[in-house]
Amino acid sequence: MEFKYTDPATEFGDGLAVIRAYHHNLLATGERLLKLSFKISHHGVGEAAAIEAIDLHQHYTRANTLHHADEEQCLFPLLVGQDLILDGMIERLTLDHEEIEQWWAELAGFLATPEKISDMDRLVEVAYQFERLQREHLTRENEDFLPRVEEQLNVFHRQQAGQKMAQLRGLSAAA
Question: Which of 23, 25, 35, 68 could pair covalently with 8 via S-S, beta carbons 3.0-4.6 A apart?
């Protein structure tokens, strides 16, 4: 079976729209992850659960990497040094990325090889911690960070960020 990654962003004319599309997708994917971890903990790893685990692994591997790169390489550089509050937010969000990636490193092992899952309690704990951190991070961005960024960035800078995001994916700027 082949797993295909579908980018949550469908167009890149506005970098903030790309960020919001990823946030929406990652929040929904987090719900799937928690449901799957509880399903596996109660019923073991059947074929359907194994397929979903591998699908989640493939999705998170690509989506989190792209999302963090979108922010750290395309959005944050446009903002650093303009506003002390934003600078503090960016520092905190970057630290969040590191912590999320630490939990992902362990969770990825479970999802990549679901047939080897033997410690169901640890799977649930790791999935919960990863999803909780990611959800809190995305909520902080949606409620505090992005509204402030919208005030700072003009249309040109939003387009510029979107073009850089497209380039990270090997797409043309018009994608």
Answer: 25
Query: 3-state DSSP helix/strand/coil percent for the chain, to nearest 5?
Result: 80, 0, 20
Report whether CATH 3.30.1240.10 matches the domain 15-168.
no
Q: Are the C-beta atoms of residues 161 and 15 closer than 8 Å to each other?
A: yes
pLDDT in tens, 75-86: 999 999 989 999
Do 16 and 161 touch, CB atoms closer than 8 A? Answer: yes
Domain spans of the chain, in order of start: 15-168
Cα-Cα-Cα-Cα dihedral sign, residues 112, 117, 137, 87: negative
Task: Using only the alpha carbons of the chain, give its radius of gyration.
Answer: 17
CB atoms within 10 A of CB 97: 18
Q: Kindly state the DSSP code that residue 59 receives in the 8-state scheme.
A: H
DSSP state of 154: -
> pLDDT tens digits for 106-117?
999 999 999 999
Distance CA 99, CA 133 (A): 8
Cβ–Cβ < 8 Å for 170, 25: no
Q: Answer for the pair 117, 52: CB distance below 8 angstroms, yes or no.
A: no
